[in-house]
C-alpha cells in the first residue's frame, strides 16, 4: 500500500506509532499487500481485452478515428493507468522482498549496519511508491480541471504539456522536499524528532487531499455547465438531455466514490497514529481501541490502495468496455479542437451508423473557441454505449427524429 510510513520504516530509530505498525503481523500484512497487488494487476490485464458487445442496428461504427493523434483526455487516462500500474508493481516488489528475504530486511533496523543495500532498497521502494501514486493523484486532479475546461471550450491538445508539468513536476518537487526533510542529516537521525516526519507526511497527503476537496467542486461545476449546454442546444430540456446529464453526473460520482473508498482509510490511519504519537505513553490500556483501530485501517489500506486502478477502470469504462484499444473510435474522448476541414465532418455516414443525414439542422452544435457542444459532451461520456451516437441523435432536428423513429440506443447510463 502507499503510505508515508513506508519511508519512516527505513529509519533505525522510530517513534512508537511507526514501530507499532511495523511490528504488527508483518508477514501477514505484506502477504496481503502482495496478493492484493497481484490481483489488481491480473484484473487490469483482463480489462485491457476488447469488450464484446453485440452489434445492432443502433450500434456505432468502429472505424478508425479521423485523427491519428490521441485526444488529451485519452492521454490523461493512460497516464493515470500507467502510474497506478507502476506504483502497484512497486508495492508487489517491496512486499515480495520482505516476504522472501527476511534476513535482508532485518538489516534495515540495524543502527550500525555496514551493508547499505537494505537501507537503499527500503528508501528506493518507498520513494518509487510515493512518487508514482502522487503523480497519479495529480493526474486525477488534471482530469477534473480539463473536464471543466473542455465544457467551457477552453482546452485542447496544446494544454497537455502543462498537465505533464503539473503532474510530474509538482509530484517530484514535493516528494523530494519531504524526503530530504525526513532523512536529514542521515537515516540514523530521521525519526528522533517528530518535526522531521511532519513535512514528509504533508507532502505525501497534499495531492490526495487536493483531489478529495477540489475534484468534487470541479465536477459539480462541470455538471452544471453541461446542463446549461444541453438546454442551450435546442432551447428545450427533454428526457434525452436529462439522461445525458445524469450519465455524466453518475460517472463523476463513481470516480469520487472509488477514490474515497481506496484512500479514506489512509487518512483515518494517519490521524490515529498521530494521535498515538502525541500521547506520553501510547501503550497504556486506555488507548487500546485506538491502537486496534489503527491496526485495522492499516490492513484495510493494504487491500484497497492497490485496488484503485482496477476500480477506476470500472468507473470509467465498466467491466467489458475497458479496452484501451487505441483504434476504437467510440471509446476516445473528443477533447481537442476540431481544426480539420468541414468536409471531414460532413462526409457520408458509415454503414450501420445512427447519425442523422448531414444538413444545416443536423450540425446545429454551436462552435465556440474551436469546440462544439457535441464534442464536449462526447468527451464527458467516453466509454459509454451512448456516448457519440446519442449526442448526434439529440443534436438533429426533433421533427425528423420523431417522424422517422430513430432507434433507441441500448446501453448502460
From TrEMBL:
The keyword Transmembrane applies. Signal peptide: none annotated. Keywords: Cell membrane, G-protein coupled receptor, Glycoprotein, Lysosome, Membrane, Receptor, Transducer, Transmembrane, Transmembrane helix. It comes from Molossus molossus (Pallas' mastiff bat). One of its GO terms (molecular function) is L-DOPA binding. It is found in: Apical cell membrane; Lysosome membrane; Melanosome membrane. It is a multi-pass membrane protein. PANTHER family: G-PROTEIN COUPLED RECEPTOR 143 (PTHR15177). Interacts with heterotrimeric G(i) proteins. Interacts with ARRB1 and ARRB2. Interacts with MLANA. GO terms for biological process: melanosome organization; regulation of calcium-mediated signaling. InterPro entries: GPR143 (IPR001414). Its main location: membrane. This is G-protein coupled receptor 143. Coiled coil: none annotated.
Amino acid at each position: 500500500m502507499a503510505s508515508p510510513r513506508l519511508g519512516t520504516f527505513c529509519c533505525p530509530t522510530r517513534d512508537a506509532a511507526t514501530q507499532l505498525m511495523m511490528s504488527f503481523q508483518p508477514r501477514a500484512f505484506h502477504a496481503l499487500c502482495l496478493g492484493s497487488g497481484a490481483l489488481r494487476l491480473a484484473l487490469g490485464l483482463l480489462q485491457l481485452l476488447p469488450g464484446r458487445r453485440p452489434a445492432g442496428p443502433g450500434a456505432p461504427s468502429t472505424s478508425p478515428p479521423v485523427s491519428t493523434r490521441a485526444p488529451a483526455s485519452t492521454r490523461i487516462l493512460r497516464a493515470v493507468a500507467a502510474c497506478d500500474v507502476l506504483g502497484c508493481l512497486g508495492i508487489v516488489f517491496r512486499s515480495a522482498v520482505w516476504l522472501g528475504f527476511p534476513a535482508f530486511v532485518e538489516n534495515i533496523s540495524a543502527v550500525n549496519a555496514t551493508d547499505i543495500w537494505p537501507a537503499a532498497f527500503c528508501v528506493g521502494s518507498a520513494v518509487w511508491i510515493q512518487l508514482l501514486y502522487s503523480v497519479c493523484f495529480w493526474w486525477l486532479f488534471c482530469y477534473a480541471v480539463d473536464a471543466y475546461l473542455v465544457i467551457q471550450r477552453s482546452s485542447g491538445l496544446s494544454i497537455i504539456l502543462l498537465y505533464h508539468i503539473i503532474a510530474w513536476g509538482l509530484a517530484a518537487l514535493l516528494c523530494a522536499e519531504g524526503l530530504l526533510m525526513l532523512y536529514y542529516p542521515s537515516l540514523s537521525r530521521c525519526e528522533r524528532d517528530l518535526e522531521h516526519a511532519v513535512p514528509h507526511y504533508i507532502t505525501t497527503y497534499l495531492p490526495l487531499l487536493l483531489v478529495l476537496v477540489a475534484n468534487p467542486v470541479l465536477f459539480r461545476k462541470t455538471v452544471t455547465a453541461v446542463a446549461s449546454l444541453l438546454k442551450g442546444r435546442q432551447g428545450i430540456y427533454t428526457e434525452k438531455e436529462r439522461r445525458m446529464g445524469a450519465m455524466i453526473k453518475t460517472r463523476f460520482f463513481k470516480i469520487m466514490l472509488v477514490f474515497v473508498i481506496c484512500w479514506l482509510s489512509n487518512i483515518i490511519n494517519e490521524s490515529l497514529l498521530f494521535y498515538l504519537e502525541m500521547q506520553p505513553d501510547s501503550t497504556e490500556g486506555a488507548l487500546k481501541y485506538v491502537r486496534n483501530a489503527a491496526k485495522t485501517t492499516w490492513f484495510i489500506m493494504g487491500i484497497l490502495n492497490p485496488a484503485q486502478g482496477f476500480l477506476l477502470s470500472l468507473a470509467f469504462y465498466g467491466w467489458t468496455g475497458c479496452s484501451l484499444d487505441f483504434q476504437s473510435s467510440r471509446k476516445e474522448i473528443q477533447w481537442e479542437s476540431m481544426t480539420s476541414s468541414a468536409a471531414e465532418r460532413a462526409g457520408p455516414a458509415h454503414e450501420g451508423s445512427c447519425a442523422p443525414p448531414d444538413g444545416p439542422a443536423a450540425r446545429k452544435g454551436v462552435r465556440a473557441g474551436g469546440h462544439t457542444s457535441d464534442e464536449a459532451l462526447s468527451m464527458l461520456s467516453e466509454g459509454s454505449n451512448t456516448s457519440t451516437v446519442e449526442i448526434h441523435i439529440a443534436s438533429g432536428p426533433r421533427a425528423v427524429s420523431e417522424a422517422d423513429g430513430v432507434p433507441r440506443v441500448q446501453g448502460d447510463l
